[in-house]
Structure formats: C-alpha cells, structure tokens
C-alpha cells in the first residue's frame, strides 16, 4: 500500500509512559509491555478502538493482553497483518488514561533482516528506525507519539554481562537461574524509533566530557574484548563533536551518560538512539595498521553525525517519515561543516560534492527520483536516500549561504527554542529561519522541498570594453522526470568571485556595494542578467564557488582550455580550482571519445603543462594537490555526454592517466620520493595529505605497469607501515595480471583473515578492480570462506563493489546484470533492506546507452516476476520498470 504525505492525521492516542521488560534468551525472548494511553485532544473524534502497530511475525502470548488489569477476551480484539486492534467494547467508559499490557514472544537469533531485536556476534541489539519497534512489540510506532520509556532487561549473567538501554540505569541486580537484570529510565520523551537495547559480552573504553555549563558526562564505547584500543579515535571525535556543537550552535548534551556500541551486523552506518548510539563497527574501530585515512575520517564524521542528532532529530524530531530530511539533511549539513572545521575545508567540500554528483544526481534523474520531502512511498526504508540526506544537506547549506552564518544561527536558535520536545515538519523548520530573519524572503526557496530533479543553470558572458562591464546571462531550467514541462524556477544562490588577468582577486560590484571576495547572487527567475561593473579586460568570473547550489552548470559557449587552465592555476576557492581541473581533464577525455577507434588524439601541451604545474606546486596543501590530480570519474564524464557508455569512457580515462604518467614521469617520481614519510604514523592533516599525494603518484605510475613499480607495490603490501599505504599498493596490483598481484592478495589474506573489517577491504578491492574477469572473481569471492551473505558489510563490499565497477561490471553484459538480479532475489529472502539497496543500482538503467538499458531491464523483469518480493524490493523494481 502506498502512503501519502497529504493523508497525515494526528494519532488517536498518546502514550504517557511505556514500561518494557525484556526476558532475553535464545531461541525465545519474551517482551512484556505496559503502555499508559490517553486520548489525543488533537485527534479526530470517533471510534475509540486502540490500533497498535505490530509486525505480522509477532506472537502474542495467550491471555496476556489486558486493559486496566482485565484480560481482554479474544472477541474484543483482533490481530491483523499490521498490528493489533483493541475494540471499544474492551475499554472502560471513560478513557482519560488507560493501561494496556501484553507479552510477546520472538526469536531474535532468527532475525536476519536486522530490524527490530536481533543478534549480532552473539550479542542482542536493536535497530528501530524507521519502523523496527513494531517488530519488538505492539505500539503506536510513529514519530509523533513521544513517550517516557522505562526498560528492564533480564538475561543470563555470564553470556550477557553488559545490559544497556536508553537513559539512566536506576537499578540492577541478580535474578533467578544465573540471570541478572538492569533497569533504565530515559527521562526525555521520545518516539519509539529512538528506543535501543544492547545485551552482550562487551568491554568498554571510558572518558568524560565537561559540558559548557560544567556538568560531567560519562562517555563509554562498548566493543568486543580485544578491540578497545581501536576506539581512541572515535572517543576523541565524540569529544570534539560535543565541544563543536556547543560552540557552533550553543547545544549542550542533556544526560550524564552517553554510550556508543559497535556491532558487526548492521544495515546502515549507525543509529542515534537516545544516549545509546549503535554503530556499524566499521565506523568505530580504527587503528593505523587496520584502517585507512578515509576510515578515520568516516569515523569522525559519523560519530559527529549521530551525536548531532541529539538535538536535530531527538530533542526536535519528525512529525512523520515524509519529514525525514528535517533531521537527516540538517544533521548531514552539521556533520559536513564539523568535519570541514576539523580538516581542510576545500578538500572536504570536494569529497562531499563528488558524492552528491556520483550518487544523488543519478538518483534524481532515475525512476526513484523524489523531492527531499517525498510525497508518497511504499516502504520508508527505501527513502533513506542520497536525495533525503545529501541533497537535503545541500538545501540546508543554501539556507546558510543565503542567511549568512549569523542569520542562520538566529534561525536555529529560534527553531530549538520553539520546537524543543516536539515532532515537527520541514515547514516548521523553514518558518523558524524565516521568522528569525524577516528581512529575507524565503517563500520561493521552499520549492526546494517539493521539486524533484537537478536544476540546470546555463551561463554566457559578455564583456563591454568601453563600459568595463561584464554581463552574466543566466538561465535556469528544472527538467522534471516523465514530464515535458519544466519545474518552477528556484531561488539559487550563486557564490562568485572575480579574478583579473594576472590571477588576482578583485571586488565584485553589481551596484549594491562592493564585495571584496565572495559575492552571493540570487538567481530567482528563469532568465536573469547580472552586470558586473569596473571589470578590467581579461578578467574571469568564477561562479558557484564551494558549489553553492546543487545544480548542473553549463556554459553555452563552453569554457576554453586557457580559461580552465587559468582557474586551475589561480582560483583561490579550492572547490572551484578543483572543478576547473576536472573540466580540463574531462574535455581531454571527451576528445579521446570523439574517435571511435583506439587511436586517441595527442593530448594538448596546455593540459600537460597545467598538470605539471600542479605536480610542482609546493604551496598548496598536499591533500588538495592529490584531489586536483584525480582523474574525473566515469560519472563526471557521462554527465557531459548524452548517454553513459561505461566501457569506452573507462578506457579513455585510463588512457589519460597513462599518458600523463608517461609524459610527467619525472614529476610523479619526484612527488613519490618527496612524500615518502618515514616518521611515526600520525592522523594529522599534514601526514594525511602526504599519504594522499603519495598514493596518487603511485596510482599514476602504477598504470604504466613497470616491473619496478609492481615490485615496490608488493613490498609495500608485505611490509607496509599503515593500511592507507598498503591498500593503495594493493589497489594498483589488483588491476594487473602480474605475479605480484596474486602474491599480494594471498599475503594480505593470510595476515588479516581473522579481522573482519580488514577482510572487507580485501573483498572490496577485488570486486572493484577494473578487469575483464571481474564477474568471475566476484563469483569465487562469494564462495570464499570469508564471505557471508547475511552480513551486510560483506554484501556491500562484494556486490556493491561489483556494481560500482565501471569497467568490470559492464563488460560482463547480460551475464553481469542477471547475476546481480539473482543475488538480489536471494538476498530478499534474508534481508530486504540490503536487497533493495542492491536493486537501486539496477534502477539507474536509464542513464545508459540503449543496448545496456535493454539488458538491465530484462534483469529487472526477472526480479519483478518473483513471488513474495518484499515491499522494499517491490517498490524499487516496479518503479524502475514503469518509468
Ligand atoms: N538515522 C540513522 C542515521 O542517519 C539511519 C538509520 C536508518 N535505518 C534504516 N533502517 N533505514 O544516522
Ligand atoms: Zn542521520
């Protein structure tokens, strides 16, 4: 059944308090619940029956259902596929407040969907967002029902020494039969999706944080024995996040305890349960020899993300799931800016944009396209998307750009003040920003919440020498999927700067006062012209600095190689400098692709010189230099073409890499030497930058397949000082047909086979290696002892890796797509959320050339024909085929 935003109705009953007792055991767990309900004064009058959500797998213990202590006979209630209805006849005359109790049986160990209560690595844990609580017990499982939770956990003392839930521990002790118990009360009212429980054999690292008002918070990170020393970075990141949220948003933590638990079996990255965040272990556990710099940065970002949810998500939550971006877009924006503040802003921005373009743009152009606030869905789990998260964050970023940091902060202050403790909508959010900034009109801006698709802004410039004016002619179009009409014009903030012909920044003057550096223009109409005054001849305007809006920018007359090389050399904005380099490289790749044989044209000297200058640039931060050297992705190139033909694009990109490696060999070798850090490992920015640049040079030189480099890579895999360096070397080898490749993979496996997280890398590198035999490799990986279809991380590494393999996946043609379809069908029986995530890769068929489209569609049809598809996979596949 499809759910619609427009059908929202307030809940009939509110829950004043909820008291849960978990008698945890394998195979049978019993959950007792006691809800105190009250009619919602804002609910619609009418039938007073109580309707509670409950999964159809829930087993109600006979005669356990009572209302105000009286057993409800079976004639007075009904169990359905979606829950439990207690008829009016079972209720007392006046139901100002009534108590409903019941017991439910389940087998958490059999729960492979990893939603609700399940077991991971021998421990019990939960995942309730979005609608997992209804797999635990009967409850009004919707975010606008907020209640005070009391939780008692009873479990075997030896097997499950640690018992955790939300809030404060108020009681604990021994129970019968070798069991023990703990009781928790969470004083903050919360929706059921924020409920959490963990029971297991865990140890923890501990620290404290003193809040800005002087309270001490106990911080604990729970992991398996042996992993404690890998939690240091997560702990430091947590303390930095807590401080940053106080300094940046004035938000203080609100309990005396904050727990994080790492589990190996988890569908997503992590979950912000009140005071008990549960994490996919790969976003907690890092050490130099087992994790890369990218892993360290992910840990920092995700720890921050979940912590920030305490205010943006928990204290102020969502009225309904259509509002998901209210908390996710805002919280992603907050974690992005936090990470940027902790590191190099430009490099962070570049990686955020790469992700947006690589994953959100295709989604927005495909059959699953939806506005950041969707209007309908079948399965909410399908809407934890790049659009809701990443585009959602871009929308918040634009608000920040339009209001400026001070205006934005005024807005968030008002938002928290007004809505603390409430479940609200995206409208409420924008309204708070609007009311705090009455001088700026956000009416048009609201369209970003309801309009689908990636806007295209096209630009042409005219210079008038006699007037010294530069005119920007801008046009926006908002192509809508499945419709000829374009959408309404949006308010698009354009952060821009001007450089004179010598590369110096000059002020921007559009007649409303000089702006020294960045000027923010507001494009509001379909067509609009801005005239810049006092512009010397030969100046260059740089538009959309920091990628100030999630749009595609086109220059109607193109941008010349000279202009791009000029910007790559001189632009002061890191993002725009990188963008110029990407376009320069992309134009070269497009030039290669214009020949349909393999006789690629010579690469232009100007391009070579531009890259030489980058390689010789000693002034720029090395992490940025590494980013500047990255060959644009397949996706970046495909976006500039009419259709995506991945194999030739991949070949042309590889050719560019090899050509640059050949002509700039000395420069690359110099860089390699200059970045051979022999000092102690450190995660600081300088050290990271050095490693990034080193690995980039190695990647270029490795593309030439010279025996020397192959040997050196093998040596690094054997003796490497840290995982960042080892993985880069292994990655170079994985693409080759060398003896070194086989040796390196075998050595690596032998060394790390006991470490699940490291083995994910070994699996992933093989699945993504651009080789003709990628499909065969993936098939044998799935037979390998290290693979397990029930562990999402492994599926993401292998099947996710294959689907991201621009060359190796598509070269397999129909066989590849059919294979993927088969795996999705197998997975759907185990874990629909993971299956659906894989199915989304097939849903992007429309971007490809017609032959590929047909093949993917035929694979999709095979899935559609399967009986008993989950609602998750059904929604993705049916939307893909009906478009
Ligand atoms: N709220 C979590 C986060 O972004 C994501 C949980 C999503 N889980 C799911 N099963 N859809 O941090
Ligand atoms: Zn989140």
TrEMBL record:
Residues 453-555 form the Peptidase M1 alanyl aminopeptidase Ig-like fold domain. Residues 19-194 form the Aminopeptidase N-like N-terminal domain. This is Aminopeptidase N. One of its GO terms (biological process) is proteolysis. GO terms for molecular function: aminopeptidase activity; metallopeptidase activity; zinc ion binding. CDD domains: M1_APN (cd09600). Keywords: Aminopeptidase, Hydrolase, Metal-binding, Metalloprotease, Protease, Zinc. Residues 562-881 form the Peptidase M1 alanyl aminopeptidase C-terminal domain. Belongs to the peptidase M1 family. InterPro entries: Aminopeptidase_N-like_N (IPR045357), Aminopeptidase_N-like_N_sf (IPR042097), PepN_Ig-like_sf (IPR038438), Peptidase_M1 (IPR001930), Peptidase_M1_dom (IPR014782), Peptidase_M1_pepN (IPR012779), Peptidase_M1_pepN_C (IPR024601), Peptidase_M1_pepN_C_sf (IPR037144). Its cofactor is Zn(2+). It comes from Rhodosorus marinus. It comes from the Eukaryota. Pfam families: DUF3458, DUF3458_C, Peptidase_M1, Peptidase_M1_N. Residues 234-445 form the Peptidase M1 membrane alanine aminopeptidase domain.
């Amino acid at each position: 059944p499809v759910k619609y935003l427009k059908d929202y109705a307030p809940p009939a009953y509110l829950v004043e308090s909820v008291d849960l007792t978990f008698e945890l055991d394998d195979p049978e767990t019993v959950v007792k619940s006691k809800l105190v309900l009250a009619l919602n004064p804002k609910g619609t009058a009418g039938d007073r029956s109580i309707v509670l959500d409950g999964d159809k797998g829930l087993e109600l213990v006979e005669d356990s259902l009572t209302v105000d202590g009286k057993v409800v006979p079976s004639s007075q209630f009904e169990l359905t596929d979606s829950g439990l209805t207690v008829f009016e006849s079972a209720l007392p005359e006046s139901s100002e407040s009534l108590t409903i109790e019941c017991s439910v049986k389940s087998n958490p160990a059999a729960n492979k969907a990893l939603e609700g209560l399940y077991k991971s690595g021998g421990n019990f844990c939960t995942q309730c967002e979005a609608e997992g609580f209804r797999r635990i017990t009967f409850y009004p499982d919707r975010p606008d029902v907020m209640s005070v939770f009391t939780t008692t956990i009873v479990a075997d003392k030896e097997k499950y020494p640690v018992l955790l839930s939300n809030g404060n521990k108020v009681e604990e002790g021994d129970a019968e039969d070798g069991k023990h118990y703990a009781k928790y009360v969470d004083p903050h009212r919360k929706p059921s999706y924020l409920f959490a429980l963990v029971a297991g054999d865990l140890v923890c690292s501990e620290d404290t944080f003193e809040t800005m008002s002087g309270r001490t918070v106990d911080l604990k990170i729970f992991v398996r024995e042996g992993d404690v020393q890998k939690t240091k970075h997560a702990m430091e990141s947590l303390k930095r996040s807590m401080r940053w949220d106080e300094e940046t948003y004035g938000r203080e933590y609100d309990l005396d305890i904050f727990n994080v638990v790492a589990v190996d079996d988890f569908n997503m990255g992590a979950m912000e349960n009140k005071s008990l965040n549960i994490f996919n272990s790969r976003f907690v556990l890092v050490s130099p020899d087992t994790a890369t710099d990218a892993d360290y940065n992910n840990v920092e970002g995700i720890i921050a993300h979940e912590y920030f949810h305490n205010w943006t998500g928990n204290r102020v939550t969502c009225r309904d799931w259509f509002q998901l971006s209210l908390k996710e877009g805002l919280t992603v924006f907050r974690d992005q800016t936090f990470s940027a503040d902790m590191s190099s802003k430009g490099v962070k921005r570049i990686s955020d944009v790469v992700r947006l373009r690589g994953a959100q743009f295709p989604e927005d152009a495909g059959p699953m396209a939806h506005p950041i606030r969707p209007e309908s869905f079948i399965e909410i789990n399908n809407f934890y998307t790049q659009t809701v998260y990443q585009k959602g964050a871009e929308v918040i970023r634009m608000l920040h750009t339009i209001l400026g940091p001070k205006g934005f902060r005024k807005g968030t202050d008002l938002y928290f003040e007004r809505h603390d403790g409430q479940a609200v909508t995206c409208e409420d959010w924008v309204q708070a920003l609007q009311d705090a900034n009455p001088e700026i009109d956000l009416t048009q801006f609201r369209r970003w919440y309801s309009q689908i698709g990636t806007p295209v802004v096209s630009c042409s410039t005219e210079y008038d020498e006699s007037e010294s004016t530069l005119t920007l002619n801008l046009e926006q179009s908002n192509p809508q999927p499945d419709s000829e009409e374009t959408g309404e014009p949006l308010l698009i903030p354009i952060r821009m700067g001007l450089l004179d012909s010598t590369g110096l920044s000059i002020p921007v003057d559009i007649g409303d006062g000089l702006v020294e550096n960045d000027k923010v223009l507001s494009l509001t109409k379909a067509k609009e012209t801005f005239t810049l005054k006092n512009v010397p001849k030969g100046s260059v305007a740089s538009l959309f600095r920091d990628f100030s809006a999630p749009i595609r920018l086109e220059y109607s007359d193109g941008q010349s190689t000279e202009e791009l090389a000029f910007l790559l050399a001189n632009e002061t904005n890191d993002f725009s400098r990188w963008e110029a380099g990407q376009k320069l490289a992309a134009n070269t790749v497009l030039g290669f692709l214009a020949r349909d044989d393999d006789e690629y044209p010579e690469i232009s000297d100007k391009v070579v010189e531009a890259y030489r200058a980058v390689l010789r640039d000693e002034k720029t931060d090395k992490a940025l230099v590494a980013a500047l050297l990255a060959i644009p992705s397949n996706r970046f190139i495909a976006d500039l073409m009419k259709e995506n033909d991945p194999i030739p694009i991949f070949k042309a990109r590889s050719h560019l890499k090899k050509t640059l490696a050949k002509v700039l060999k000395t420069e690359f070798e110099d860089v390699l030497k200059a970045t051979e850090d022999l000092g102690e490992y450190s995660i600081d920015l300088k050290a990271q930058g050095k490693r990034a640049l080193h690995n980039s040079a190695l990647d270029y030189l490795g593309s030439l397949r010279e025996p020397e480099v192959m040997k050196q890579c093998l040596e690094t895999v054997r003796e490497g000082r840290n995982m960042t360096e080892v993985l880069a070397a292994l990655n170079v080898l994985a693409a080759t047909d060398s003896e070194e490749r086989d040796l390196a993979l075998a050595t690596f496996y032998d060394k790390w086979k006991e470490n699940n997280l490291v083995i994910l890398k070994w699996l992933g590198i093989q699945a993504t290696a651009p080789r003709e035999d990628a499909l065969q490799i993936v098939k044998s990986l799935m037979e390998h002892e290290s693979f397990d279809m029930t562990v999402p991380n492994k599926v993401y590494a292998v099947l996710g890796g294959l689907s991201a393999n621009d060359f190796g996946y598509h070269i397999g043609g129909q066989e590849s797509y059919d294979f993927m379809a088969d795996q999705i069908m197998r997975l759907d029986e185990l874990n629909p959320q993971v299956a659906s995530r894989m199915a989304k890769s097939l849903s992007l068929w429309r971007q490809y050339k017609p032959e590929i489209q047909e093949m993917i569609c035929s694979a999709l049809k095979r899935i559609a024909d399967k009986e008993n598809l989950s609602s998750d996979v059904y929604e993705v596949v049916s939307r893909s085929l009906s478009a």
